[in-house]
Design goal:
- The complex is a heterotrimer of chains A (191), B (100) and C (390).
- Chain A has 191 residues and is α/β, with parallel strands linked by helices.
- Chain A is 37% helix and 22% strand.
- Chain A has a single domain, classed as Pyruvate-ferredoxin oxidoreductase, PFOR, domain III (Pyruvate-ferredoxin Oxidoreductase, domain 3), CATH 3.40.920.10.
- Chain A has 6 helices and 7 strands, in the order βαββββαβααααβ.
- Chain A has a 7-stranded mixed β-sheet with strand order 2-3-1-4-5-6-7, with helices on both faces.
- In chain A, α3 packs antiparallel against α6.
- Chain B has 100 residues and is α+β, with helices and mostly antiparallel strands.
- Chain B has a domain of 65 residues: 2-Layer Sandwich (Alpha-Beta Plaits), CATH 3.30.70.
- Chain B is built from 2 helices and 4 strands, in the order βαββαβ.
- In chain B, the strands form 2 sheets. In chain B, strands 1-4 form a two-stranded antiparallel sheet. Chain B has a two-stranded antiparallel sheet with strand order 2-3.
- In chain B, a hairpin with a 5-residue loop joins β2 and β3.
- The longest helix of chain B is centred in the middle third of the chain and has 5 residues.
- The two termini of chain B are 14 Å apart.
- Chain C has a 7-stranded mixed β-sheet, with helices on both faces. In chain C, strands 9-11-10-13-14-15 form a 6-stranded mixed β-sheet, sandwiched between helices.
- In chain C, α1 packs parallel to α7 and α3 crosses α4.
- The longest helix of chain C is centred in the middle third of the chain and has 33 residues.
- In chain C, β10, α10 and β11 form a beta-alpha-beta unit.
- The chains are: A alpha/beta (191), B alpha+beta (100), C alpha/beta (390).
- Chains A and C meet through α1 and β2 of A and β8 and α10 of C.
Chain lengths: 191, 100, 390
Amino acid sequence: MKEMFEVRWHGRGGQGAVTAAELSVYAAIEEGKYAQAFPSFGPERRGAPVVAFSRFSDKPILIRSDIYNPDMIIVLDPTLIKNVNVMEGLKANGIAIVNTSKPAEDIIKRYNFPGNIKLGVVNATRIAMDILRMPIVNTAMLGSFVKATGIVNLETIINVVKRRFRGAAGEKNAEAVRRAYNETVFVGGDG
Amino acid sequence: MNEFKRTPKPRVSELPIAAIIPEPGNSKYYFTGDWRSVRPVINKDKCTGCSLCWVYCPDTAIIKVEGGKYDVDLNYCKGCGICAEECPVKAITMVEEGED
Amino acid sequence: MGMECAAAAALAAKLAMVDVIAAYPITPQTHIAETLSEYVANGELDAEYINAESEHSAISACIGAAATGARVFTATCGQGLALMHELLPIAAGWRLPIVMVNTNRSLSPNLNIWGDQSDSMASRDCGWIQFFAENAQELFDLVIMAFRIAEDERVQLPVMVNAKGFYCTHVIEPLIILDQEEVEKFLPPKKIQKYALNPNNPTTWGCVAFPDVQTEIRKQWDDALRNSIKVIREVFKEYGSLFGRNYDIIETYRMEDAEVGLLLMGYACGTCRVAVDTLREEGEKVGMIKLRVFRPFPFDDLAAASKNLKAIGVFDEAISVGGVGGPLFGEVRSALYSLERRPKVLGFIQGIGGRDIKVDDFIRAYYEIKSVLSGEKRIENDFMFLQVRE
């Protein structure tokens, strides 16, 4: 991993974007890395756009300011993109992952995504509906996160997810993680 | 959809005294409709104009339209579904906000 | 392990086996109050959890409980701390070893739930020991040490551990925690103080004091707070030798050959370190001076850290409205006034109401300091708002 890897998660209040950022950080810490997770602080109402952040590094993370130039953005709800500038500050050659039922090329064209980023798409809503019977996509997006970055191992994320959601719910969420990991496809970037 | 009309980053010199907001009712400029993930669709043929949806809407997002019927103000509707629940003739269905 | 800062603070109070918690929820302290109430509800912590009807009642309950000898913890911030205000001097003047985590939140107006130091600064004269934590690890360690320091016979004063709202409450990061055994070995056994409220041994607290004695009462209290610095130093040292984390009252970073020092407290120190590294790479001789202890004011440690400096930039996350600038700036400047070779002291206000403090802000401030030193520029009254749109 390069010096510091910064991720911004976009979701709506109640969709679990904050939890996803947290779980990614718990996983990294478990693997002995340094990591930091925080929500965009403030009152969160169901449905309102929310942002969460996570930082990863092999060295202790000293900085405690917001993330302005993420290396990666993850969008849990595609209906956000028309209202929120999810691409803001994303580094050139950064990675974006979007939960969508549309193909990647569609997303790029419709929202005018810059050409130098790598875009990953996954129909996390479908995965969540199939496995969890609810459109809560945060755990599925963690699978995509692992596939895109390899910052943590899939198994570590699965362990962390199972600890957070006990019993049958844990198993189901773990399945969602795996399926999203397998189904996320990427276009663009340096490959 | 209209842009939210306000100055998000006022200067010290632009603030009214005590940061009081002198314009009444300006929350109407804050379109909360983009929080929705489902929205109500009112079938005008079934609608009897009873106004219960308008009464129950917690957000003043149901408006009266011509013919004594009612429709949704999508600028503010947050998709809570109370109107659909309360409609006595089931004229309102909640529809997923798609990606389109 | 990974933990939320607030959860770490709650865990520290639990490991200290507090007897009484009286609190009222207020963002962003809520996770501390919630976690502790869960511990009590599920039996992990054998304590009395009082859901007070307001912060004023919460601190009153804390005072009552502590006066009978219970080990007491509470948490609040912002308007909550302000609502406690009339009782804070009583808690301290009555020499009660209450430990509070204050999750630094901006005072209204306007209604702002985010972090700045205006709340603790507004209570700086209330006679409490005040620490500032930078991160989850420090918050955890300082809360544990707070009980030890507060209950020391030579101290017997309440301790406020400040942690910036959200940036040092809702952040999840790695830290090393202690286990129950380690904490029990480190903390003194619970002891009921000599004159504790007890019907079998009645005493009178806080009676009327005429003008002919109030001065002496104040002085005794001021002496106690001032002298507590020795105990704080001792306890920090012992914690370091037992658990490997060495805390100083003032911590310096890359100050060895520095000409300019950036002085501040709390969470922004992390970001400041990055700014110092960046400036050092550009060849600038700058370092960071971090105050961990604000009360009692560390005169000697500050004088030692300021030796040979041309200038110090003091960063406040509050403004003493209509006063001499930021509260910390005013105090640092006053403390350094009697030094034979005084560095130029300049004040910078930032982070008000939770406005993000960036690496760039420190760098900008540094260059402001440089241009004042070179005579290029003057800053009126020697302090400025660093992040403001005029």
